[in-house]
Structures are given as C-alpha cells and as structure tokens.
Amino acid sequence: MTRTGRTRSHRSRKKRITLALAPVAALAVIVPLMNQAGAATPSEVTADCASDSDRLADCEFVDVQFKANSLGPNERVSAVTDNCGATGTASKTFNVSASVTRTIQLENGSTTEAGTKLGNSFFEVGLEFSTSTINITRDDKTTTLAFSRTDTVQTDSIAFFMWSAKRTDVSGFLKATYKEAQDGRTVFFSPSEGAATVHVFYPQILNNGTPDGRLWLRNVKCGTAEASGVQNSTKAVRSEPGFGEGGANVTDVDIPLTEVPAP
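Above: the chain's sequence. Below: its structure in token form.
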C-alpha cells in the first residue's frame, strides 16, 4: 500500500511541473514576436529619415556607386514659335530659361528638405564627388541657365528649345540609427544594406557658373501628331523624346554651350 501511494504521489508531481513550465514556454515564444513587431521596416526607415522623425538619433545616406555625366529629363525650356503655313524659313528670337538643383529619389519617391539629418548627409556625400574636372551642386541651391538668341525656324514648322541637364548620379541606401532599440538593435537600413536604389542627382556646373548639359533647337512639322501634342500642351515641362529621338517629323539641332552667353 505504501509503495502504491508513493508512486501515485510521484506522478502527480511530474504533472504539476509540466503545467508550471507551459506558461513559461509560451511567454518565451511571445516575447520575440513582440520584439519583431516593433522592428523598423524599410518603408518606415525612409519615412522617418525624410521627415527627420524624433525617433531618430541619426540618418545618413551611404553611397555605393556613381555615374558621372548622366543626363536628366528632356525639358522644353522656351516658348513655342509658330511658322506654320509659311513657304520659307523664319528668323526668330527665343528666350531660353532652365534651372537645376540637387534632387533626391528615395524608395517611396519622396524627397527630403535641406535641414534634416538626411539632407546634411547628402551634402557631405556630395563633397566626395566635386573634383577639379567635375564641379557639382551639393546643396539645394538652384542654378539657372537663361539667355536670348536668334535662330532659324524651318518652313511650315514650330520650334522651341530643349534641355537635358548633365548630372552625377550617386546611388546607395539609407542607414537610420534609432534612439531606442527595436528588436534588440538600433540600426536599420532602407531598402537594405548595400543596396543602390536610392539616387541623389548632383547637377554638374560649368566653370562660368551655368549648368552643364545638352541644349538643342527642335523643329517639328506643322499638322503632325507631334506638333499637335506640343501645341495642345499647357505646360512647358512635359515628357519629350530625347535628342534625335523625335521621329521623321522632328529635326534637332545641337547648340554647343560655348555659344551660350555667360550670366
């Protein structure tokens, strides 16, 4: 009888130990999951860096690779001159105006202001790429190209000036340091460490202080779809084909920047 009683007591103690451990094991699983839920995602890192969030101790742009002499968007930078219906060429005066500034392409398409920690990082990174041969604009200061000149507009055509700024494209990723640890750490990346998908475009500047780039006079035959698209556009800045890419109804003439008067 005594032996049977001891055996019954031993089994009961094992059950109690197992039941006592069960909540502890469950808690051990919950804690890591709660920590992971607090981790900063790449999109949160981008948003926090762009807004200079109070959660951040620091945020910096880490450059991975660069490409000099990268051309920017094709922009119409003068009013459209109409020579439609004419049987001969016409000499017309064009007022040309273009401006460039440092632009930032984050993962979510947003930009950041100069006063943020991230903005300061972009400026510091830009120091590395300003050399004796390539002078770049590192900050948000706007640099302009403005002049007037007379050129020939072809028979039965419209004409206007086109511009594509020359830039140094520096690509990399964001490194954010948070004030309080999340998931056991304070440093997070966007989109990932070593990525080259965040772009900073630093405009290249000539020695005379004007932007470097490609400038050309574009003539478009009247009555064509290409001409109608330009004439019906209310904005000077719109998507336009690049130099020599307009098709049979479009003629492009390269204008060397050496012919542009200095400011």
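Residues 2-37 form the longest helix (36 residues).
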